[in-house]
Design goal:
This is Integral membrane protein. Keywords: Membrane, Transmembrane, Transmembrane helix. 26% of the residues are buried. The chain contains eleven helices and two strands. A two-stranded antiparallel sheet has the order 1-2. The protein has a domain of 141 residues. Helices cover 71% and strands 2% of the residues.
């Protein structure tokens, strides 16, 4: 374990990334717990106001993100300063993306259906950063054997193939499959070979003169959304809280 940590975390310089990801996830979890307590009227917490203006936590999040980012750029690759900057950046990013929907809509949609976008963005961001963190870095590690070099070359080729299939899935309007397909190759392949969703760039380009393909695409999208929208909402409600009724 110690040798793996040294070779795959310390030598490639991934410790700041690990700290930033940990701070990001922990900040999001703590923030959601606090906001749900405030919403329920429990605990000692309350909304922060200044002169009658509700100060959303995206504001200190932006400040911390800027401070952490500039300190990370100004500092070296190693040392306590870079580690601290990574933690500050992760905290700020967690606060900002927890209110991503507010930034997107320029409205306080935190507890509405539109506010679910914040949860989706946080989950996808954590997944992507986790991919970078968990993946073996082909550069920056010293003293590798020929077998290890070959293994890492195979990893690079595999990732390149996954990325190609993920781009196809993205063109077919399947953003979630495209993102998670970078991590799990089968997911990217499924997204690439199946019918495109209506309105996607692929459907507009290749289904324009194929009415049967357009009809099959709409029917499959309808059945897919009907089947998975419920479970997806349950997971989102569990993570971020149930939106207010309309």
């Amino acid at each position: 374990m110690g040798d793996w940590w040294q070779r795959n975390i310390m030598e490639p310089g991934k410790l700041p990334l690990l700290l930033a990801l940990s701070a990001f996830v922990l900040t999001f979890v703590v923030t959601r717990v606090i906001t749900r307590l405030i919403r329920a009227g429990k605990g000692p917490f309350g909304n922060v106001k200044a002169g009658g203006v509700h100060i959303h936590h995206v504001v200190p999040g932006v400040v911390l993100t800027v401070i952490g980012g500039f300190c990370a750029v100004a500092g070296g690759r190693y040392g306590f300063g870079s580690a601290l900057a990574a933690v500050v950046f992760g905290i700020g990013a967690g606060l900002v993306l927890d209110e991503f929907a507010l930034i997107l809509h320029l409205d306080d949609v935190y507890w509405t259906e539109a506010g679910r976008k914040s949860v989706e963005v946080v989950v996808l961001t954590a997944a992507l950063v986790g991919l970078v963190l968990a993946g073996f870095t082909p550069f920056g590690v010293d003293g590798m054997s020929q077998e290890e070099l070959q293994d890492r070359a195979n990893v690079i080729a595999t990732v390149a193939g996954n990325f190609f299939f993920s781009l196809l899935a993205l063109a077919k309007g399947k953003a979630r499959l495209a993102i998670f397909g970078v991590i799990v190759p089968v997911i990217a392949l499924i997204g690439a070979v199946r019918l495109a969703r209506p309105g996607s760039p692929w459907a507009r380009r290749f289904y324009a003169r194929r009415p049967r393909a357009r009809a099959r695409s709409r029917l499959r999208a309808y059945h897919h959304d009907r089947r998975w929208s419920g479970p997806r909402r349950v997971v989102q409600d569990w993570i971020g809280g149930r939106p207010d009724p309309r």
